[in-house]
């Protein structure tokens, strides 16, 4: 789906079905340097089981026009405008890494917008290695190589793929090498409001964390869970890139959580 948002064409994946504002909506927010393709399995399931789906490419990413948002705080009004544009009052928000920080900001700045929060491979703060940031400013492709080697667990690094015929590292590199990775990493590094935003959120929440996460370590995710009073699931053998590395497990946890909140699938 193409949408004009703040005067710029924005791409929003809808899971393979036409978006319908009358249905419960799930808003999927990608991580640094990524795009809607992170959520291929999860968005399709929700779209074909009684929900409407929004999985935007953030500004400047892949199929969306414009410059990357300069800060995590800026993503709150942008997401609010997106929901306004499609006629949705509130949504279940599912965010990976930086995408979850954006979801927190939406909840902090526009509290009525967020019906539930699901964070995947994330923490209240996401520090960035200065060398990685310097590399990203010179070459997104080189920085993507580093991140993808750090970001996956041993099975993916050894060539095992959860989707036959597709290699998550190759797909991730193709996406990240052409997106504003440096801007995303700067936004993460400069964001300090996550703890306060998490403590202020009053709705249902869950965190899906990775036991081998080198980018948002498990301990940091568990600390966030305390602030949110969130349900926690830990996928022990996986790394940071959970939506692509463990898509079936992530889908199962998301649908169990969101379907229970809704009471039933319509």
Describe the structure in brief:
This protein is α/β, with parallel strands linked by helices and 266 residues long. Helix content is 44%, strand content 17%. Strand 3, helix 1 (40-47) and strand 4 (52-56) form a beta-alpha-beta unit.
- SSE order, one letter for each helix or strand: EEEHEHEHEHHHHHHEHEHH
Distance between the termini: 23 Å
Helix vs. strand class: alpha/beta
With helices defined by DSSP (H or I, 4 residues minimum), what is the helix count?
12
CATH arch. level architecture: 3-Layer(aba) Sandwich
The fold-level CATH name is Rossmann fold
How large is the radius of gyration? Answer: 17 Å
Uncertain residue segments: none
Q: Helical proportion?
A: 40-55%
CATH class: Alpha Beta
Largest sheet: 8 strands, mixed
Q: What's the domain count?
A: 1
Mean pLDDT: 95
How many β-strand runs? 8
CATH superfamily: Alpha/Beta hydrolase fold, catalytic domain
Shape: globular
| Estimated share of beta-strand residues | 15-25%
* Lateral strand order in the biggest sheet: 1-2-4-3-5-6-7-8
């Amino acid at each position: 789906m193409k949408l004009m948002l703040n005067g710029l064409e924005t791409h929003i994946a809808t899971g393979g079905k036409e978006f319908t504002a009358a249905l419960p909506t799930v808003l999927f927010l990608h991580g640094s340097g990524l795009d809607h393709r992170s959520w291929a399995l999860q968005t399709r399931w929700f779209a074909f089981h009684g929900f409407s789906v929004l999985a935007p490419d953030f500004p400047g990413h892949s199929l969306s026009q414009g410059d990357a948002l300069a800060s995590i705080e800026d993503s709150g009004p942008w997401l609010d405008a997106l929901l306004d544009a499609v006629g949705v009052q509130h949504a279940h928000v599912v965010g990976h890494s930086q995408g979850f920080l954006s979801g927190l900001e939406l909840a902090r700045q526009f509290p009525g917008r967020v019906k539930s929060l699901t964070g995947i491979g994330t923490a209240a703060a996401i520090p960035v290695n200065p060398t990685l940031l310097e590399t990203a400013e010179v070459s997104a492709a080189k920085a993507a190589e580093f991140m993808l080697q750090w970001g996956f667990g041993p099975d993916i690094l050894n060539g095992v793929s959860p989707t036959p015929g597709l290699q998550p590292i190759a797909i991730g590199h193709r996406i990240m090498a052409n997106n504003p990775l440096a801007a995303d990493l700067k936004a993460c590094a400069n964001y300090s409001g996550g703890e306060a935003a998490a403590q202020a959120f009053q709705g249902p929440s869950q965190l899906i964390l990775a036991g081998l996460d080198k980018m948002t370590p498990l301990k940091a995710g568990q600390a966030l869970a305390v602030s949110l009073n969130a349900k926690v699931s830990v996928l022990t053998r996986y790394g940071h890139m959970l939506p692509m590395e463990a898509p079936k497990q992530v889908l199962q946890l998301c649908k169990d959580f969101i379907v229970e909140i809704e009471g039933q699938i319509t």
